[in-house]
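FAQ

Q: What does a record look like?
A: Structure on top, sequence underneath. For example:
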């Protein structure tokens, strides 16, 4: 959601006449913060410290800080870093261009934090980072009160977007060439709570599925408490809803789930997975797990291991519990010592890696359709492979045999999995035959984007890794001393990258 918000910030700035710095030192730097991550504030103030020096020698440079941490810290940011020009929150992202303008005109810092959403952010212009795949918000905020989570206090109560607006945005994306969308919300399956329709999410999935030309639909994140069978039916009966589900477990201990104020229990959770697999046999199911929540005993943790063993997740985002000031769990007694959390975390990682590997091995020998992507295969150049996501969202690195045509990002290749690793699959050619490539509208859109940004037609040989010239989100690299600066929380990011579990 944070990355998609950055796309909106970029879009709003472009609509106001700003252009990407394209490698030059930028006149405006916007940092979109995420308070869910640990140490977000340290990273923010560290980056702001670096930027202070840049700003001193760059006349007229402006720095803006927005997002969840700004919503939480409000004027603290200007107190700690008075060289910041604009601070804005999660509810008024669209104000960024006017706040920058006002800060320039009045020659003083502008702080604007609203307590509630004024306009649903999807009405803002969006500068999308991908031509083949897009995020579409269906709701923002959350009505739950998980005790470890800062989201409800920073994003507010759930606001549902009108179905017609969602469908119009998906249609517009498809018209622009996208063939994949991910529907976004803090709690997607409670969509409809605002207009009183408990089955609205399943209906929405079916309606989005009817959009001509849309090949892949994903969504994140659902909540086990409100996950009803009509959603499973909609997934199973809508061919372009992908066989993939991200279902956050958080803990396998019912006692800890209660302390977390998560209203399902492990049995219900496992029951959902059984029903999903009964209807969608090849579904890859991923999850989120927190280790070391306050009061977690060894017996509680073993319950988590038991559920993980039974659930057979394809991948998991695993987190060591750490205090988020402002959340109920932050002041709970029995915070678990760091070394205990670390030891449990390592056991969980080892178990999940084994399961991920075993589950990936079951896919070896199967044909898969891979949507070719950019930026997911860090070693692609040296291995002569390209990368993309299978229907179930598994990361696949596939060989481009010598003499074969090269697919473009957004094209779809049909390959057979030849090897499995815990976090990815390999599909190498067994007989050197050329790749089976389906050229798609999304590949054509990538060509057009390349031509627009470079002023030259796309070079097919550049392949999927040839993303040069694309405008990417994130803090531009600024040379400060010898260290390039990187953004604390913005950049292209796969939706479910199992290697993230090591974070
Ligand atoms: S459901 Fe998700 S977003 Fe809502 S409070 Fe719980 S963890 Fe946070």
């Amino acid at each position: 959601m944070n990355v998609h918000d950055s796309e909106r910030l970029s879009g709003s700035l472009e609509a106001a006449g700003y252009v990407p710095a394209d490698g030059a030192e930028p006149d405006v730097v916007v940092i979109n913060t995420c308070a869910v991550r640990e140490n977000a504030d340290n990273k923010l103030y560290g980056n702001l410290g670096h930027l202070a020096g840049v700003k001193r020698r760059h006349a007229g440079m402006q720095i803006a800080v927005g997002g969840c941490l700004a919503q939480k810290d409000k004027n603290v940011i200007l107190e700690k870093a008075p060289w910041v020009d604009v601070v804005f929150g999660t509810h008024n992202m669209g104000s960024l261009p006017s706040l920058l303008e006002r800060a320039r005109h009045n020659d003083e810092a502008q702080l604007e934090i609203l307590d509630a959403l004024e306009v649903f952010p999807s009405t803002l212009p969006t500068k999308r980072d991908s031509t083949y795949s897009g995020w579409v918000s269906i709701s923002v905020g959350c009505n739950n009160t998980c005790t470890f989570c800062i989201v409800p206090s920073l994003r507010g109560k759930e606001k549902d977007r009108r179905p017609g607006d969602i469908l119009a945005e998906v249609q517009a994306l498809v018209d622009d060439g996208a063939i994949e969308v991910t529907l976004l919300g803090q709690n997607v399956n409670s969509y409809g709570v605002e207009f009183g329709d408990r089955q609205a999410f399943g209906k929405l999935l079916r309606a989005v599925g009817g959009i001509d030309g849309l090949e892949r639909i994903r969504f994140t994140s659902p909540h086990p408490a409100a996950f009803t069978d009509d959603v499973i039916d909609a997934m199973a009966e809508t061919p372009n809803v992908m066989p993939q589900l991200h279902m956050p477990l958080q803990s396998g201990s019912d006692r800890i789930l209660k302390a977390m104020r998560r209203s399902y229990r492990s049995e219900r959770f496992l029951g959902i997975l059984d029903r999903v697999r009964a209807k969608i046999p090849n579904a890859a199911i991923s999850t989120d797990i927190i280790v070391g929540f306050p009061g977690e005993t060894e017996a509680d943790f073993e319950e988590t291991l038991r559920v993980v063993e039974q659930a057979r997740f394809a991948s998991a985002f695993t987190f060591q519990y750490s205090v988020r000031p402002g959340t109920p769990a932050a002041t709970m007694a029995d915070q678990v010592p760091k070394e205990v959390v670390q030891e449990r975390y390592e056991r969980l990682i080892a178990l999940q890696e084994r399961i991920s590997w075993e589950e990936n091995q079951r896919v070896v020998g199967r044909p898969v359709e891979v949507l070719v992507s950019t930026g997911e295969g860090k070693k692609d150049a040296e291995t002569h492979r390209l990368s993309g996501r299978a229907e179930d969202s598994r990361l696949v690195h596939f060989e481009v045999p010598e003499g074969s045509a090269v697919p473009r990002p957004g094209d779809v290749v049909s390959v057979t999995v030849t090897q499995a690793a815990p976090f990815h699959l390999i599909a190498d050619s067994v007989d050197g035959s050329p790749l089976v490539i389906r050229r798609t509208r999304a590949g054509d859109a990538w060509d057009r984007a390349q031509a627009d940004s470079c002023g030259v037609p796309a070079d097919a040989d550049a392949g999927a890794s040839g993303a040069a010239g694309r405008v990417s989100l994130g803090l531009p690299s600024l040379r400060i001393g010898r260290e390039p600066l990187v953004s604390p929380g913005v950049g292209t990011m796969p939706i479910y990258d199992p290697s993230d579990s090591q974070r």
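Q: Is there anything notable about this one?
A: Residues 456-503 have pLDDT under 50 and may be disordered.
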